[in-house]
Write a structure and sequence with these properties.
Elements (H helix, E strand, L loop, with lengths): L1 H39 L10 H8 L15 E2 L12 E13 L6 E6 L8 E4 L3 E8 L8 E4 L21 E7 L6 E7 L10 E7 L9 H5 L3 E10 L4 H8 L13 E4 L26 E2 L3 E8 L6 E6 L1 E8 L3 E2 L4 E2 L1 E5 L4 E8 L9 E6 L14 E7 L3 H7 L15 E2 L20 E10 L9 E4 L30 E4 L4 E8 L5 E5 L4 E7 L31 E2 L1 E4 L4 E7 L4 E7 L2 H5 L3 E6 L2 H4 L2 H11 L2
Parallel strand pairs: 2-5, 4-9, 10-13, 12-21, 18-22, 23-26, 25-33
Antiparallel strand pairs: 1-10, 2-3, 5-7, 6-8, 8-9, 10-11, 13-19, 14-18, 14-20, 15-16, 15-17, 15-19, 20-21, 23-24, 26-31, 27-30, 27-32, 28-29, 28-31, 32-33
Bound molecules: 2-acetamido-2-deoxy-beta-D-glucopyranose (4 copies) and copper (II) ion (CU).
Length: about 625
């Protein structure tokens, strides 16, 4: 009896010890493999660091697991793209829906190949990307717009304008121009799917041509990361829009409930009230892992609000805006305001002497569009930034020392950034060949039963929900007349000035599809009620915002136009087709703040190839 008892006790000690030892040994064998796999032999295209997978692989008996479960960093892989030749790359995306808890609160979101947000696509200039979309949703079409890409019109992904909503299957053929690179994203342009998660990032790396220095060398960074930041609603987008268009809400946009960074966030479940019960599960605060010197590509993927980013413990240098457009570089710890659809590329560097000093990223949602307070929302949120673990730094050859640098300015004001100086005459001198003058606003009037309606020059056009034939497939005579969309013509390769007066009491971030533009002027009215519009045809009156910048205007594809102010945008009408111009606030877009510019004559725009492509999108 005695002996037996002793043995039992011994086994009680030996067995667990052996188990722990075996785990440790296994871990040390597998760990480097896992790590190396992740950083260097990932599939070329996807940096889709799927958080689910990380959760499974990340735990182990070390204080710093390789990838912590709540680390939301997405690493990019320029080294796999900048030295190779252009290629044709095929992707297949199955679109489904599923319940996710991005910030702890359950919400049905769209999934691309099971992922939310969609996979991160990395390419180089000159690549051709074929994306076959398989719609596996019930009773719901889809369409994907490739924000900022200068591609063929029929591939632009706008339901009601360039295609039908895809019911079963459709292949986008995207020929990336040789001279296009930078930070882009893709998102649904059908109904309100964007706000329920149908989006992802697309990065085009600039090839390191022989004889020129690559960005990696020029700015001496070895790590590149992506950060998608956006406001987030816990309710389905349809409900949010219904709220917005309810006359009782005085055309005030419903404020978001939360914010997500790369598809994760943090929400205090105790914020859920009896009136708004939520299926909420408390989660750990997510964090970011940043090496001491990183290129960070940031996209505002939100539906409503702009935001400002501060990086405590880092100094940021603004490198590029939107799709790879250079700027006069300034350094700070804070950048803003970045509006929905806009992007910035930042070089972020540790500013202290010790990379283990605490560091934070702070996102502050702009309050302009949040006139209805949402008690559940924490509009300014902080997430900690961890240094990578020691062996990760070794793999990345990261320099251990941190240079001591200081910011130039208290914050980088994105509304006042200069571009790189341009060659004289590049903008075709003082005036463009053609000028399009517009007035935009959101109205709220008796005749619309006090529902908000977005207008551009007295036309309101909600196209994302159209079940009819897309405009591009119809003769002008067959276009709808009530409401009649505003479509302005411009000749191919003309220089066009687009003057948008915002006569609304709120700002609107406008996006032009298929083109980049020079921002010659952006003006905010000097006081409330001072309608300082600009009429380029009135030669008597000086523009309130001063002369046009023809020296170093910034180039963008999305620009914020302040309330009661205006923007003057000059672009070369280089791309044939019907191109949407609209506010990128989803709720404003949904209530009609859309128009189009037709580049080229009717026959050029509606070629047989275009018709064939549209027919494919409209088939069953
Ligand atoms: C997408 O769906 C098709 C058919 O349902 C299937 O054959 C394919 O494996 C799926 N692809 C992915 C990436 O899930
Ligand atoms: C789309 O149309 C359907 C049916 O007419 C309507 O119920 C829905 O609210 C519309 N959605 C949007 C975003 O306008
Ligand atoms: C932009 O450039 C103009 C003209 O060179 C200069 O006067 C202005 O100070 C610059 N603005 C900023 C924010 O650097
Ligand atoms: C928009 O309205 C203004 C003012 O009525 C007018 O001058 C302008 O030509 C209109 N623009 C277009 C493209 O029709
Ligand atoms: Cu708007």
């Amino acid at each position: 009896m005695e002996k037996d008892g002793k043995w039992k006790r011994k086994w009680k000690v030996i067995l667990p010890t052996a188990a722990v030892l075996a785990t440790v040994v296994l871990f040390f064998f597998l760990y480097p493999k896992f790590y190396l796999n992740r950083s260097w032999s990932d599939e070329d295209l996807y940096s889709g660091d799927n958080p689910e997978i990380e959760q499974d692989l990340g735990h182990g008996p070390v204080t710093h697991p390789a990838v912590e479960p709540n680390d939301f960093s997405i690493r990019l892989h320029p080294e796999q793209h900048i030295h190779r030749d252009p290629e044709t790359i095929g992707l297949e995306w199955n679109i489904t829906k599923g319940v996710a808890r991005p910030d702890g609160v359950a919400k049905e979101v769209y999934l691309i190949d099971g992922q939310f947000p969609g996979p991160t696509v990395e390419l180089r200039s000159g690549d051709e990307l074929l994306v076959t979309i398989r719609n596996e949703l019930k009773d719901e079409g889809v369409a994907i717009h490739w924000h900022g890409l200068r591609i063929e019109n029929a591939m632009d992904g706008v339901v009601g304008l360039t295609q039908c909503a895809i019911q079963k299957e459709f292949t986008y053929r995207l020929k990336i121009p040789d001279d296009q690179d930078g930070t882009f994203w893709y998102h649904s342009h059908s109904e309100l799917q964007r706000a329920d998660g149908l989006f992802g990032a697309l990065v085009i790396h600039k090839p390191a041509e022989a004889g020129s220095t690559s960005d990696l060398k020029k700015y001496e960074y070895r790590n590149e990361q992506l950060l998608m930041v956006g406001d987030w609603y816990h309710r389905p987008a349809e409900e949010v829009l219904a709220d917005y268009t309810n006359w009782e809400n005085f055309k005030i946009e419903p404020a978001p409930d939360s914010m997500l960074l790369n598809g994760v966030g943090y929400f205090e479940c105790s914020m859920a009230t009896k009136a708004h019960p939520l299926d909420c599960k408390g989660q750990d605060m997510p964090h970011l892992t940043l090496p001491a010197r990183t290129r960070l590509r940031i996209v505002n993927t939100g539906a409503l609000t702009g935001f400002t980013i501060s990086m405590t413990g880092f100094v940021v240098t603004l490198l590029e805006v939107d799709g790879g457009h250079g700027v006069e570089q300034v350094r700070s710890e804070k950048v803003g305001i970045l509006y929905p659809g806009e992007r910035v590329d930042l070089l972020v560097e540790r500013s202290g002497h010790d990379e283990y000093e605490s560091a934070w990223i702070t996102i502050a949602l702009d309050r302009e569009n949040m006139q209805f307070p949402n008690m559940a929302l924490t509009p300014t949120q902080q997430f900690s930034i961890a240094p990578p673990m020691a062996n990760e730094r070794a793999v990345l050859h990261e320099e251990a020392t941190v240079r001591s640098i200081s910011p130039h300015v208290p914050w980088i004001d994105l509304s006042n950034v200069n571009g790189s100086a341009i060659a004289f005459g590049e903008l075709s001198g003082q005036s463009a060949d053609d000028t399009i003058l517009l007035y935009a606003s959101i109205s709220y009037l008796t005749q619309y039963e006090y529902r908000p309606k977005g207008f551009i020059n007295h036309t309101s056009w909600s196209l994302s929900n159209s079940s009819g034939s897309p405009l591009l497939s119809l003769d002008r005579a067959a276009w709808p007349t009530d409401p009649e969309p505003l479509v302005v013509k411009a000749g191919r390769s003309e220089w066009v000035d687009l003057v948008i007066n915002n006569i609304d009491d709120k700002g609107h971030p406008f996006h032009l599809h298929g083109h980049d533009f020079y921002v010659l002027s952006v003006h905010q009215a000097s006081r409330v009620g001072a309608y300082e519009q600009y009429n380029p045809f009135d030669s008597e009156k000086e523009p309130a915002g001063g002369p046009m910048n023809l020296v170093n205007p910034v180039i963008k594809d999305t620009v914020y136009i302040p309330s009661q102010g205006y923007a003057v945008l000059r672009f070369r009408a280089s791309n044939l087709g019907l191109w949407l111009v609209h506010c990128h606030v989803l709720w404003h877009e949904a209530v009609g703040m859309n128009m189009a510019i037709q580049i080229g004559d009717d026959a050029q725009v509606r070629s047989q190839m275009v018709q064939d492509s549209i027919a494919k999108s409209c088939a069953g």
